[in-house]
Amino acid sequence: MDQNDFYPPHDGISLRELANRLGAELRDADAGNRIIRSVAPVSRAKPGQICYILSRKNREELATCEASAILCDAALASIVPEHVAILFSKSPHAAFAMAGEILHPQAMRPTLVTSLLAAISPMAFIDPTAKLEPDVEIEPMAVIGAGAEIGSGTRIAAGAIIGSNVKIGRGCTIASGASITAALIGNGVIIHNGARIGQDGFGFAPGPRGMLKIVQIGRVIIQDNVEIGANTTVDRGAMDDTVIGEGTKIDNLVQVAHNVRIGRHCGIAAGVGIAGSTHIGDGVLIGGASGINGHIKIGDGVQIAAMSGVVGDVPPGARYGGVPARPMKDFLRDLAAIMSRTDERAKRRGDNND
């Protein structure tokens, strides 16, 4: 990769100091003075960069690796080239994430679009009744509504809209073009470009003259350290609240409907749709493009494979996949049977053509 002007390299940190901060073990103490400036993938890592591997499947990529250091489990040391210093870690993926935060702190939250001459742009509109703590940054064309409250260290990017009486905690980032209404937001929350928080949920009742709109008077409550991806939508509750638990990370283009409750430290990949009044436990992982039916319960620690259709309750700790979603062993067995029948039909067609 050419020089990256968007996220330039770190001024440099010694490998010894980096190992200490990551809680990793430096195998060769003589390599401790090597300077690390950036992260990189294994196959094209260069001097001054650090990378990581998780299995022996990375052996071929290591053939072109010129990194100054690599993070890996001790069991993989034998496949690492001699010129690459090794940092032993029982969780190399997590350690690499920590290294990225140390070396590229500016990439950990959306950056401002403009270079502000003042913390609050004169081209932003801020209602006189809004309350801003010190050190809030607000870019041009952002709108802060009546009675809104924003905590110190929070960044409101260009064109974002913060509705009336919305409360946003400290150290948050609301990226360009996002809109937030009817919401209470904790500390350290990141909401990416174009996300929509707090709009009407989809609620209608059939009537003699067509569909009648059901009033939506709930809120969205987003707890601390949640991250919500670009163009994701989180509807406010109907007569209850939509809640997203502490530490949960939601990808781009996800739909969270009204009254949904998502637990703590969940991971929800792109394209997922969660229908109304579903309750999701703590530590749940949902693969991309899955659909979650409304009014069901998904237990703590559940894992749902990508492109699944979840139509009923899922017990805690289960691994589900498929359409309709079912225990993973059943899904894989059914998939194997389908593939076998498909192969048999293809073979018969081939024989008939002969």
TrEMBL record:
Catalysis performed (reactions): a UDP-3-O-[(3R)-3-hydroxyacyl]-alpha-D-glucosamine + a (3R)-hydroxyacyl-[ACP] = a UDP-2-N,3-O-bis[(3R)-3-hydroxyacyl]-alpha-D-glucosamine + holo-[ACP] + H(+)
Record-linked InterPro entries: Hexapep (IPR001451), Hexapep_transf_CS (IPR018357), LpxD (IPR007691), Trimer_LpxA-like_sf (IPR011004), UDP_GlcNAc_AcTrfase_non-rep (IPR020573)
Gene Ontology cellular-component terms listed: membrane
Active site location: 258
Top-level taxon: Bacteria
One GO term (biological process): lipid A biosynthetic process
UniProt keyword list: Acyltransferase, Lipid A biosynthesis, Lipid biosynthesis, Lipid metabolism, Repeat, Transferase
Matching Pfam families: Hexapep, LpxD
CDD domains on file: LbH_LpxD
EC number(s) per entry: 2.3.1.191
Top-rank EC class of the record's enzyme: transferase
Pathway annotation: Bacterial outer membrane biogenesis; LPS lipid A biosynthesis
UDP-3-O-[3-hydroxymyristoyl] glucosamine N-acyltransferase non-repeat region domain ranges (all copies): 34-100
One example GO MF annotation: UDP-3-O-[(3R)-3-hydroxyacyl]-glucosamine N-acyltransferase activity
Family to which this protein belongs: Belongs to the transferase hexapeptide repeat family. LpxD subfamily.
Quaternary structure, from the entry: Homotrimer.
Job of this protein: Catalyzes the N-acylation of UDP-3-O-acylglucosamine using 3-hydroxyacyl-ACP as the acyl donor. Is involved in the biosynthesis of lipid A, a phosphorylated glycolipid that anchors the lipopolysaccharide to the outer membrane of the cell.
Protein's UniProt name: UDP-3-O-acylglucosamine N-acyltransferase
Organism field: Neorhizobium lilium
Upper classification of the organism: Bacteria, Pseudomonadati, Pseudomonadota, Alphaproteobacteria, Hyphomicrobiales
Encoding gene (name): lpxD
